[in-house]
Amino acid sequence: MIFSSVQIANAVQYLPLWDKSGYKIGEYGTVTVQDYKQNTNMQIKNSIYVTVKSNSFEHGLTLHLLETEINSGVFSGQIGFSLDISAEDSIFVNENDFVHAVYRGYSNSAKIEPRIIFVSPITISADKNSYTFGEKIIISGKVADATPGSKIVLSVIDPAGKIIQTQSITLSYEQRFYAELTADSSPWEISGNYLVKVSSKSSEAETAFSFSTTHHPEEITKSIKIFGSQQNLVYSITSGTVSLVMPNEDLSSLRFSLNTNSGGHFTVELPRTLIDAKTIYGEEESFEVFSDDRKTVYVEKIGSNERTLTIPFSYKTKSIEIVGTQLEMIQTSSIKSSTSSVPSWIQNNAEWWSKGLIGEEDFLSGIQFLINQGIIQISTTHDAQQSSLPFVPNWVKDTARWWAEGKVTDQDFLNGIKFLVENQIIKV
Q1: What is the β-pairing status of strands 288-291 and 319-323?
Q2: Strand 151-157's sheet: what is its strand order?
Q3: Mean pLDDT lowest among 72-86, 251-265, 361-375
Q4: Does residue 117 form part of some domain?
Q5: Which of 29, 35, 393, 394 is most buried, most CB within 10 Å of its CB?
């Protein structure tokens, strides 16, 4: 909903405005605030933050509002209302909750409306309100206006609105039905609220439940070797895995490549001998942490020999980067360039490839030429991977782009080439 000039003109400064007085679960609400004092830079759209709370989630969360137009002093942002406490860009609510937007001591509320219940001859229910990956889901009910022995259709709809499962069920002599679903195969790929719909010839009914794709909700501690080094990092993660740790000595950073199946959190123990963040006076300083290249918050436990960071992430997060002020790597990479730098035409190819101007095959052919000519020399190490990958990982393409833009070193780029060779994407 777009606020009219009359609404904004009559708005109380600092008072958050909801675009509606009531919302249904699953909907999104828009919060708008008028604050001319935050129009600090008249050349760009400025930002402010409000707190959004609900009766079911009193701790609340922070919502980012962006200026609607340059130099307007009016800020707006959206938030969803979900039964899933880990839902992305949403706040956890239940029916009849009030949601409160708070800014500078000013507060405004809207209500979460109860679902309208239509009287239906079909009753349907699940045996639980929430499930995790691998659990059995039991759906049962009764169709009062159907003939015993007749057929009904049961459909399961995921949070994206896609029908992932359909089955035909024969009613018992008491007009009842029963179905067992097991959430352990590929269609069950998204965490969130799932809908189960039952249809007969003359009527239909539905029920909902919450589902999490997490196989093991507990944190499991693991270790992973930093790429190009023998150094290991101890970490734990929920709802995902860590596939690679890429160091960047120029930025004093470690970039973790993630595969996530829902929202969760990532905890890593960082030895001070490896990476640290200090001022020029040697005083403790905060790390900068980025989730998919956007700055994010984290919780830190500081020890004398290590610093442990716990970083929340959302569903489909691909990378987390931790940036300090110093990074001390013990290099064991067996790849080197026989010249002081990689030829400039390869940089051009890397830039064109990253922008989609040439194909992957053309770019890899150029790299193959360098290897065949001895410009890049690679010696296979005992710990090289023996498996092969059918594609070039995104982080390699990102590194090629950063290298072409002068943001990372030749060695960073060559480390990516070493990875392609060791995983048989480039065969030598």
Answers
A1: antiparallel
A2: 130-132, 204-212, 192-199, 151-157, 163-170
A3: 361-375
A4: no
A5: 29
Among 212, 232, 253, the domain boundary falls at 212
Residue whose entry in the numeric block shows the structure tokens 């030749």: 410
Q: Considering only CA atoms, which of 161, 158, 157, 256 is closest in space to residue 213?
A: 158
- Write out the residue range of the structural domain in which residue 195 sits: 122-212
Task: State whether 342 and 292 are in the same domain.
Answer: no
Assess whether 346 and 291 both reside in one domain: no
Tell me what pLDDT residue 6 has: 35
Task: Find the CATH number of the domain harbouring 234.
Answer: 2.60.220
As a three-state string, the secondary structure of the chain is: CCCCHHHHHCCCCCCCEECCCEECCCCEEEEEEECHHHCCCCCCCCEEEEEEEECCCCCCEEEEEEECCCCCCEEEEEEEEECCCCCCCEEECCCCCEEEEEECCEEEEEEECCCCCCCCCEEEEECCCEEECCCEEEEEEEECCCCCCCEEEEEEECCCCCEEEEEEEECCCCCEEEEEEECCCCCCCCCEEEEEEEECCCCEEEEEEEEECCCCCCCEEEEEECCCECCEEEEEECCEEEEEEEEECCCCEEEEEEEECCCEEEEEEEECCCEECECCCCCECCCEEEECCEECCCEEEECCCEEEEEEEECCCCCEEEEECCEECCCECCCEEECCCCCCHHHHHHHHHHHCCCCCHHHHHHHHHHHHHCCCEEECCCCCCCCCCCCCCCHHHHHHHHHHHCCCCCHHHHHHHHHHHHHCCCCCC
Among the three residues 302, 327, 352, which one is the final residue of a domain in this structure?
327
428: in domain:
no
> Do 138 and 100 fall within a single domain?
no
* CATH number of the domain that residue 207 is part of: 2.60.40.1930
Render pLDDT for 107-152 as a digit per residue (tens, 0 to 9): 999 999 987 655 568 888 888 878 887 788 999 999 988 889 999 9
**Residues 406 and 344 both lie in one domain:** yes
Judge whether 313 lies within some domain: yes
In Å, how far are 92, 111, 193, 384, 387 from 60, measured between CA atoms?
9, 16, 21, 47, 46
Residue of 364, 350, 356 lying closest to 405 (CA atoms): 350
Task: Please state, as a whole number, how many other Cβ atoms lie within 10 Å of the Cβ of residue 117.
Answer: 6
Shortest CA distance to 30 belongs to which of 6, 47, 50? 50
pTM: 0.37
Number of domains in the chain: 4
